[in-house]
């Protein structure tokens, strides 16, 4: 494969592509076309994309090449193509959030982060598959079919952002955008052997993200390396007046932190192991890799301490009250009146009320209905205090746990997910078992703190495992420093990226 | 529906046996340039859906961004109504499905209003002052507008479909809620009307809204309940929605008192419900009972952060508050020396600002009132326009009165000057010059005219000499006619008496 | 312990404006029962002395200047509408007056 130029380009990191583009070794059109070719070759099997916009991507690439040729000062990532999760609104490109209810909808505006991608000159390759409205941990709740894990096509790619993670793992894109409400960037990263970062809440504008749970949602980078995440994070992050919850401060230096971390020295850094996020329910292989990574961190000079976050045991319960409650309200706008699907009742009078109910009955999938009903219940008169109100209090306790833990440690660490990728269909009929995938990632969303997952090895089943790093709010730079250091140390041991050990995907025209 | 509607009870009869309690919710559309949560324009009368953004259309992904000016206006209203201003308050989502609510929730304030625990004194027509207690004033957003198509009656029922315009969706509103107003007895309808009127005046004085009733800038919901005696617990109330003129507020309360008295007299209980006011027939009818039973599932709006007005900011805003209408009215009445009835007429004619400006332009208060409530009021009535819309400025009236005061024109001439000004012929001075309307102040000319008139009516001279002053008027009339009205009648009278005595 | 009956699910579906089939009602009642049982434990530690957190980070007073921005072109506003007429969104008859 390495002899084919296009294949070679798709194997490079975004940072390497950016450098090659800057140096004039390749054009953006070549890079973009290489990825489009790769998508054409493998996406039939992976199904990471819901929509591929080759023409638009190549047009952007040509424009960037022309500007570069004219000697213009360009953004460092200009010309490096990117895939965007389908929950992000893109002007002129279909946006469905994985739902039938938005089939065919073409937004008339861009999300702020998309505006920033376009302004920086990143060609958008297409929109990636996801669990419907980001509700899920396996991408099996997409209304448009499963995405398959490139490590084993019979397994889930994680979720909700399985499409973005799989696109990276299958070399269909060098960069992607994900969103993370309870782990939807980090958990797919873990099970596909890729890197994903959930920034501090408010660090990346939510304007134009189709909201799942407003107080938990955060968009972030999905990449193959820590440095690539830092590069992308700096493009999309920073204050946005259209999002009232957007942080007013400038981002800390993320790329600089990643480059500093690549030196592999963590002298003086205190790393806190969250005891509640490692133990019962975590696969032995997951725990073994975690312990080995801790050893590497110690070896790099970090001081590893144990911290306790006693209320994390209630995080999942609080999350599954807050999320459905907010979602039940956020998803009310999908009613067949102004955009998207409209379904008329098969019998009886056609009234707005009945059309709304019929549209939502047919347009939403099972998981969405389940969570909307749950959220409606949690907010309804007489139950609010016991459910939603209590969950908000648990949130306070979890924030207090984090505050205390960050007194003792600069970053907190845990396995990203308790297990490696499970088989497609395995947990589809057991919502609670599915929800448990996010047990380690959810506390960060409840507290608004940033988190990263990076691959730290293969479990006993030969599937990738993820290592989670959490930092205090606004200290996203710590993720990059520690993450880049660990990545460097791991790759030194492995002799290259973990993804090199993934099986080659059959390309179109060959059989697998 | 086999039960018949009980007959209305005569209003006085109802009041003889029941004590009415009212409560009023007023919504005012703020006069900000943009909407509550997005930068779409709020200008009135635009083409449908030309003043929308992804936010006010409720498109997927859109987020609200709070208009700081709207918050300031809400604080102004709260302070003018003597309210406490919250140290910290949040928005909440009120969840209900309706096509003119683009997100299918209204962003409002629920248990954390920006202003609360206030009061306002209102003045009734006879000068009685009633204090109305304010429970809260909170911020929220308006809904879009449905136009119902295809129904024979144009009412919602029977319409085949509706067309929705979201230009109004998201326009900032402040809702002001009173505590129950008790102890006003038969004056309840008048209190309700005066309260809404007072708020309208306050909104204008604060410059937070154009407060035009006919555009729906100010909308009132009136709650009415009856109880047997003032000591009895509150009765079941009805809420009559969207009563949108002062007169209707008064009529709706009056009607509900009569209607509820009828229901209670028939031995039935009043149903707690929303009712609709029918302007044409002057009655209220029950609204459709909602199946959702008002379970709005309120929760704090996660897309907006709390509003925490600093005390310094609140005091800064307080310092900019203008004098409130009732206080101002009392001050001006004293300054101008008007009788209560005179002041009331001025207020009702909406002439306070006009008279104030006229006085400022140099006219005596009595003279200013005479112009605006007399000649100009008649002209406005004839033309069918508001006083303020007449093509004359208070400054011009001030100039005109100065001409009168200087003796340069008499009352009759002054009216001619005014008609010239109204006809667009220029300032009073210019009209006087152009039309040659100045009083004949040359005694020689007047003496000649008097002599001529006296000579024409010798018998009159005798009568006057004999002590009968009555016929003087005929002489003055003749002189005025001869001078085409440009004589000072008082001076003419003096000259007549002089000449008769001399002769 | 059954906390969510089939009738309760039907009521909630009405509030949430979602038509559910008979089999969906039955299935959801069972599933929600299990989920609610498992999440109800939040009330165990949510004591009166704990404040509620509605926003993950404590920002206040984020205001926008009252300056008009470009509206969406009408064609764009209506482009995704299932039905439109004369610059407005056409919706089925509205039975429920507000």
Mean of all residue-level pLDDT scores of chain A: 95
Low-confidence sequence ranges of chain A: 1-6
Report the principal-axis shape of chain A.
globular
Give a quick account of the main beta sheet of chain C: strands, pairing sense, barrel closure.
2 strands, antiparallel
CATH T-level topology of the domain at 6-45 in chain C:
Histone, subunit A
Fold blueprint:
The complex is a heterotrimer of chains A (512), B (503) and C (98).
Chain A: H1 5-11, H2 14-22, H3 28-46, E1 49-52, H4 54-69, E2 82-85, H5 112-120, E3 124-128, H6 162-169, E4 176-179, H7 186-192, E5 195-198, E6 219-223, H8 226-236, H9 254-261, E7 270-274, H10 284-299, E8 303-307, H11 315-330, H12 352-363, H13 366-379, H14 385-408, E9 411-415, H15 431-435, H16 442-447, E10 451-458, E11 464-470, H17 476-494
Parallel strand pairs in A: 2-3, 2-4, 7-8, 7-9
Antiparallel strand pairs in A: 1-3, 4-6, 5-6, 5-10, 9-11, 10-11
Helix pairs in contact in A: 1-3, 3-4, 8-9, 8-17, 9-17, 11-13, 11-14
Chain B: H1 11-17, E1 19-29, H2 68-80, E2 84-85, E3 92-95, E4 105-108, E5 115-123, E6 129-141, E7 145-149, E8 161-165, E9 172-178, H3 188-206, E10 218-227, E11 238-243, H4 246-265, E12 273-278, E13 283-286, E14 299-300, H5 311-319, H6 325-336, H7 340-348, H8 352-360, H9 365-383, H10 394-405, H11 411-422, H12 428-435, H13 443-456, H14 458-465, H15 472-482, H16 489-502
Parallel strand pairs in B: 11-12
Antiparallel strand pairs in B: 1-9, 1-10, 2-5, 3-4, 3-14, 5-6, 6-9, 7-8, 10-11, 12-13
Chain C: H1 6-15, H2 22-39, H3 42-45, H4 74-79, E1 84-85, E2 88-92
Antiparallel strand pairs in C: 1-2
Helix pairs in contact in C: 1-2
Give a quick set of tags describing it.
heterotrimer, A: 512 residues, alpha/beta, Amidase signature (AS) enzymes, 11-stranded mixed sheet, 17 helices, 11 strands, B: 503 residues, alpha+beta, Arc Repressor Mutant, subunit A, 3 domains, 9-stranded mixed sheet, 3-stranded antiparallel sheet, 16 helices, 14 strands, 39% helix, elongated
Please explain how this structure is put together.
The complex is a heterotrimer of chains A (512), B (503) and C (98). Chain A is an alpha/beta fold and 512 residues long. Helix content of chain A is 40%, strand content 11%. Chain A has one domain (5-312, 396-501): Alpha-Beta Complex (Amidase signature (AS) enzymes), CATH 3.90.1300.10. In chain B, helix 13 crosses helix 15. Chain C has a domain at 6-45: Histone, subunit A (Orthogonal Bundle), CATH 1.10.20. Chain C is flat. Chains in contact: A-B, A-C, B-C. Chains A and C meet through helix 11, helix 12, helix 13, helix 14 and helix 16 of A and helix 1, helix 2, helix 3, helix 4 and strand 2 of C. Strand 8 of chain B pairs antiparallel with strand 2 (88-92) of chain C, so a sheet runs across the interface.
